[in-house]
Amino acid sequence: MTIHRGSCLCGTVSFTVEGDFDSFYLCHCKHCQKDTGSAHAANLFSQSAQLSWLSGNDAVTLFTLPDSRHSRSFCKHCGSALPNTQNEGMLVVPAGCLDTEVTLTPTAHLFTASSASWEELIDKIPVFAGFPTRS
Q1: The whole model's pTM is what?
Q2: How crowded is residue 96: how many other Cβ atoms within 10 Å of its Cβ?
Q3: N or C: which end of the chain has fewer CB within 10 A?
Q4: What are the tens digits of pLDDT across the range 76-87?
Q5: Cβ contacts of 77 within 8 Å, gap of 6 or more
Q6: What is the C-alpha separation between 30 and 117, in angstroms, rounded?
Q7: How far is the C-alpha of 3 from the C-alpha of 19, rounded, in Å?
Q8: Could you tell me which of 22, 31, 29 has the C-alpha nearest to residue 71?
Q9: Cross-strand partners of 21
Q10: Domains plus CATH for the chain?
Q11: Domain CENP-V/GFA spans what residues (predicted)?
């Protein structure tokens, strides 16, 4: 059985996820853009994996957007996205909060009709391995 480890940015919250992920979606909906402050969310989903909080459980905050299925867990100290369990026991884990390597290839892009207008230009811009230096 696979065990994944994860944490928030400030280190207050840590957790394990025991089991495998069923899918890995990159969601481009407007809600996920607002949540991440980016072009899309990158979330892993599992019907069977088990989440265990190792530390900081009292710092985990859940926000559910009224009149929607959209919810988000985060650390109340640093704001980092964290796992949560949604309808019918579906575990949703933001890929970026894992400290262990994500080996699953993304399954699909979702809600691309809502993609940010600048996203189509991403493949055409310069790439740097770190922060660029001034010339």
Answers
A1: 0.89
A2: 15
A3: C
A4: 999 999 999 987
A5: 8, 10, 12, 59
A6: 12
A7: 6
A8: 31
A9: none
A10: 3-64+71-116 (2.170.150.70)
A11: 4-119
